[in-house]
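User: I'll paste a sequence; please echo it back and then give the predicted structure.

Assistant: Echoing your sequence first, then the prediction.
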Amino acid sequence: MLGLKICIVNSAKSGIFIVVEFFLNKGVLNQMDFLLYVLFSSLEYLAIFALMFALFRFEYKFYHNSVLFICAVLSFVTYSLRYGFEQAYLGPIANLLLIFAFLYYIFQIQIFYSGIMAVTGYLAYIIIQIIIFIVLDTTGILNVRGIEPNTLEGYILQLSSTAVAMATTYFIKRKNYGFAYVPHGQRAFVLYKGLNKLFLYLIILGAILVSIMLYFNTDENRVVLVIMTALLIVIFTVIIYLSIRKEYSHD
């Protein structure tokens, strides 16, 4: 598996360099905009991994090199889809799937638990960012309606979300909260019944809901945004509730 991990990392590096060079030659990428986009997006993905590892009691210090590389890859993928291929709506779901794949292939987490960690961490960050978005928009602190990346408003929203996510991570670790039921290793046996079946349904439902929400750009419709956010909070809350039950069960 170490050989596969090295192969994946090297392939990702080569692919990034080739595509970046292609876009630069076509004039699609502005170097400074690209660097700023990758920087601020990488901070967001770093916050997602920090939340994820804190919630499931993984020690970040053992994975920081891999996480930093993965965050850069995820930022590049989002930028390419948004500006290179003009398919911005595919970015969030593509990166959710990539986080899932990286957890499985790079961090060697069993596929079922990779799904739980990816969706839970992603939902946690999205909920934090949407709440901050609504607060900033409602109070008039910033005009964030129809917000776009690589703008001052976008940077403030990204930094605010990252700061709150990191503070939440610190609180979780400080209070020794989180769950330890995720095994380290891909060979863990999972029986898809009881709690595990419910987890599977919630993972799929959460991924679908996030995809629908971001595909239709619900930030431009306040009512729809609030409804979708409420549904995400319900799904996240149920996942946390099931995680508490699973922590003390043998299912």
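The chain has one domain: 2-247. Helices lie at 2-26, 31-55, 64-84, 90-105, 111-139, 152-174, 195-215, 222-247.
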